[in-house]
Amino acid sequence: MAEHLPAQPLPNWRRAVLKVGSNLLAADGGGLTPRHARALAAFIGDSHAQGRQVVLVSSGAVAAGRALLRERALPGDDLAARQALAALGQAPMIALWQSLSPRPVAQVLLTHDDLRHRRRYLNARATLRELLLLDVLPVVNENDTVAVDELKLGDNDNLAAIVAALVDADLLLIASDIDALYDADPRRVPSAVPVPHVSTLTAEVMAMAGGSGSAVGTGGMHTKLEAAVKAGAAGVPTVLFDGRNTETVAALAAGQLHGTLFDAPRSRMQARKYWLRHAPAAPGSILVDDGAARALAGGRASLLPGGIVGADGEFHRGDMVEIVDVTRRPVARGLSQYGAAEVRRLAGRHSSAIDAVLGYSYGAEIVHRDDLVVLAEVHS
Description:
ATP binds at residues 19, 176-177, 218-224. It is found in: Cytoplasm. Its main location: cytoplasm. The structure is a single chain. This protein is of the alpha/beta class. The protein has two domains: 8-271, 3-Layer(aba) Sandwich (Carbamate kinase); 279-374, Archaeosine Trna-guanine Transglycosylase, Chain: A, domain 4 (Roll). It has 14 helices and 17 strands. It has helices at residues 37-49, 61-68, 79-100, 112-116, 118-133, 150-153, 156-166, 203-206, 221-233, 246-253, 268-278, 290-297, 340-346, 354-358; strands at residues 8-9, 15-20, 53-58, 105-110, 137-142, 171-176, 181-182, 194-195, 197-198, 238-242, 256-257, 259-262, 284-288, 308-313, 320-324, 330-335, 372-374. The strands form four sheets. It has an eight-stranded mixed sheet, with helices on both faces. The chain has a five-stranded mixed sheet with strand order 14-13-15-16-17, with helices on both faces. The protein has a two-stranded antiparallel sheet with strand order 1-11. Helix 1 (37-49) links the parallel strand 2 (15-20) and strand 3. Helix 1 packs parallel to helix 10. The longest helix has 22 residues, at 79-100.
């Protein structure tokens, strides 16, 4: 463990996203190796034993795919070739993590379109939430096979930051082959000094980053700083550490970081509530009775169909909608799991009747409490 990186406490966390780069998984002779992944998997296991949840964002599929074709003429390095290699390598990459995990591993392939479109965003969010409830280890990767330009632009550092916001993580952990952010590239400047704590990601800090340092990866320090910016905007602090150092990885389970901590400018809850309060709303609203209005005003309740009186206007699944009482006074706003026509059919019903009424169900809540912000206090 590097002497110039003394231990500092990790931020408190219950749910984290761990990003593991391909340079930690690629074997010297090609393919994948558990050499560094074993300690990282042990950290995940220790975290689960402590009652915490981890979502893994893992690179390595392209490197694994290339190894499967080592006895054949390898394809070129254009986008289509790398997409083919990623498709080949997904199975061995998932198999590696399953071999190291006592819990079931679930593969989740995403593109940025899945996270930009609100309905697909809700689908991805619901799937990951359910996997965590089932005590499964989700292994997320970009769906490189169908991506157009995301393979280079949508590197897994940035994808991990987006996933951290998607699952309401408390912390983003980036395992790399470098132990910290340095004030210059330590491979070229021997006198470079590590930076253990970054309170604000200024232009000067961003200028410390260089390009990719790995032949098998798609990102470098710059993408890690971009990820820290994205995560910070969602209220999620980021830590960068050396995933090759078993002592550094083991210390994480004890709440100690030997690396760089990037603060978030505001708390996760503050960032999410701010977004929910100010994101554009659809031209429609959900009407609720007095009991539901009071429950929502408490700030800890989801909106269930039983408290709904009706719906005005038109909106779709995933839209931001206003929730109003019978006098049309705004009570809350949030992301609706159901469209306006569906809400009208479900109004006043019990959650258990959703499947029978619609023939399908997106969940028991019309608006989940994690996707809702209170606008007004409601008195009895």
